[in-house]
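Class prep. Protein, please:
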Amino acid sequence: MNKPLRSLSGLIDFDCAARWGSFKLAAQELHKTPAAISLQVKQLEENVGFELFVRHPRHITLTEKGEELAAAVRRMLSELRAKVAALQDGDDEKVLRISTTHSLALKWLVPRISRFTKQYPDIDIRIDSSDHLVDLDDGSTDVALRVADVDDADPHLLFHERLVVVYSPSLLPPGHEALTLDDLQRYPLLYEHSADDWIQLLRENHAMKGKYDFSRSYTNFAVLAQAALAGQGVGLVSYAIAYEDICSGALKMLACRSAPYGRGYRLLVSRNKEGMSKITRFRAWLREEIGEMRRSLD
């Protein structure tokens, strides 16, 4: 018969020792003695009914069951700490934690988030920009705005992205108002990761014949857009990332057919936060902003 877990004592000590792989280093973090940490873990092992660590002469390693429990405890403690922080800050409805990519945060979300806070000044916005996926179930994030492969039936899909050709007005020769496809051979062509998207676009526009300079690649669209703004070449960039600069006139968009692109933006919501007023408001605002951007592209 399974033994019920009658005490949570020792879970913090266990989590710390699991992270460090050492009772001594865990003791330093928690300001305890190694013996006290070892005793807490031993009592926890007796409580759960199985060993959590293999004790070696100079270090410890998690057992297979210890690894599983450590992952569960880490998630639980992370959610608990996030909840305590939210309660310390005040009403959880008043703090909206958003995770998104570096590019989307820098070039799309941050330039317009003031419009949301103007509508809802009581909501405190926290934006975490990272290209690494977050765990929406650990309590530290409310919503995630992410790039993903497009499935038109996906209820979380906000916008099917398109790639557009952009350039700085500083590249225009005297007396010219716009660049054309024929001008592309005169400038470096900027792209993210691979020139394949450029090749698709040129093929779509029947412009494959010619000598093109694919000499400059970038790790993300935000950096690529900045290079285009600086006049370093003609960029092929996501419309959302270039949108603000196109609207302001800092970038011009070359008139041509866009290439097929199978990526888009999704809004993911923490299961524990779905239905909260702040989430409903943010989702509605987001769809309105994206609708305006989509209409401008069409």
Observations:
- The first strand starts at residue 53 and ends at 55.
- The radius of gyration is 26 Å.
- Residues 90-160+263-297 form a domain with the D-Maltodextrin-Binding Protein; domain 2 fold (CATH 3.40.190.10).
